[in-house]
Design brief:
Layout: H1 2-20, E1 31-33, E2 39-42, E3 47-50, E4 56-60, E5 71-73, E6 79-87, E7 92-100, E8 106-113, E9 123-124, E10 130-135, E11 142-148, E12 154-161, E13 167-168, E14 177-182, E15 188-192, E16 195-199, E17 204-209, E18 230-235, E19 241-245, E20 250-254, E21 260-265, E22 270-278, E23 281-290, E24 294-303, E25 309-314, H2 320-340, H3 343-372
Antiparallel strand pairs: 1-2, 2-3, 3-4, 5-6, 6-7, 7-8, 9-10, 10-11, 11-12, 13-17, 14-15, 15-16, 16-17, 18-19, 19-20, 20-21, 22-23, 23-24, 24-25
Helix pairs in contact: 1-3
């Protein structure tokens, strides 16, 4: 019996190693909080509302294959989102921009289309101008931050050829921009590869923090995607920036003096992907990811000004499948942690070791089978 369990465990571990090395992800990071304290967040397809009485309801019904990664909110508590879905008949991508009022009234600002006009986005300043990052993470030729005015005029606020450089307008360079948020000063704040950057409304780009996505001992390389491990971010009333470093399972705080500190770490199998800093509280969107490639429902965590952490709600925890997946994720990560934190040599040696153990176990099993015969 012990040999059989060993064989099963080693087989699962080997399968996880093979698949996990190729896993990339771009989960939802959208979470916003209105003036009354109601929380809105995306699970990638459905938009949920968690009210101040801890009642969880569907704010916008999800459609399978239609993704909503980010959310924004205006001064009137209107929620903005952008849909992305794939059209198999034309093999093209369909996108749109929408708005929902606090009462749940839905309006398309940009109807679903495979050819969206330039500059349409969920990110709006108080004057109604929209801001969009125009980039291609496959070709890596240029990254532009576009501004679209109310009369439809589109200009490049900052950016040019792919790279990294501070400066104004076309002198600035961006790489792979992920999260976007407005700050109380009216500037845009971006996660850009391993950097966090600020863009003022005259197009001046400044790097606030760098080398943030270096894998730590608690981090996991298999969570990174085209944007690196930095995901959503938010800026509080004092100008402090909070960014979800998903690959390292931590929430980072960048003080106004540039000091970086880890505010919080998620435990397996959860990763922080989004954050909203409102009224002195931090609301964190955490996504569950179980090896080799299974996603569980997200959860919302609140950290108050005293540092007290509370999980407010968790999706998808009621079934046996969810509980088994969570436990499997914890066990798999504990088993494989040493494979990914110490380079390719250790990875290769460990993989060969697993294969050797499998061979030994098989020999013992055959020997005992012959002995019984």
């Amino acid at each position: 019996m012990r040999i059989r369990l060993t064989l099963t465990s080693l087989f699962v571990a080997t399968l996880v190693v093979l698949v996990a090395g190729r896993t990339q992800a771009h989960p939802a990071s959208g979470i916003v909080v209105d003036r009354s304290g109601n929380i809105y967040f995306s699970d990638l397809e459905t938009i949920w509302r968690l009210d101040t009485q801890a009642r969880l309801t569907v704010f916008r019904e999800g459609v399978r294959g239609r993704h909503v990664h980010e959310l924004s909110i205006d001064d009137h508590d209107n929620i903005y989102g952008a849909d992305v879905s794939y059209n198999p008949s034309t093999q093209g991508w369909i996108s749109d921009v929408w708005k929902m009022t606090p009462e749940g009234n839905f309006t398309y600002l940009l109807e679903p289309t495979e050819n969206p006009p330039p500059g349409w986005s969920i990110w709006r300043d108080r004057a109604g101008n929209m801001y969009l990052v125009d980039q291609n993470n496959h070709t890596k030729t240029q990254t532009l931050l576009l501004r679209r005015t109310l009369d439809g005029q589109v200009t490049t606020l900052a950016g040019g050829a792919y790279g990294h450089a501070d400066g104004k307008g076309s002198q600035a360079r961006f790489s792979s921009v992920g999260g976007i948020a407005f700050g109380p000063d009216g500037s845009l704040y971006l996660t850009d590869g391993a950097f966090v950057r600020r863009v003022t409304m005259d197009g001046t780009v400044t790097t606030l923090a760098r080398d943030l996505s270096v894998i730590t001992s608690e981090g996991r390389r298999w969570f990174t995607g085209n944007y690196g491990s930095l995901a959503g971010l938010s800026v509080d009333a004092g100008g402090n920036v909070y960014v979800a470093d998903a690959g390292n399972r931590r929430l980072l705080k960048i003080n106004t003096d540039g000091k970086v500190e880890a505010m919080f770490r998620s435990e397996p199998p959860y990763y922080p992907t989004g954050v909203a800093a409102v009224g002195g509280n931090l609301y964190i969107l955490e996504v569950g990811f179980t090896l080799p490639n299974a996603w569980s429902g997200p959860r919302i965590r609140k950290i108050d000004p005293e540092g007290q952490s509370t999980v407010l709600t968790t999706l998808g925890t009621g079934g046996l499948r969810s509980r088994i997946a969570t436990q499997a994720g914890v066990i798999a990560e504990s088993t494989l942690a040493f494979l990914y934190n110490n380079g390719r040599i250790r990875y290769t040696l460990a993989f060969l070791g697993v294969g050797t153990l499998l061979m030994i176990a098989m020999i013992i099993w055959r020997h005992r089978r012959r002995a019984r015969a």
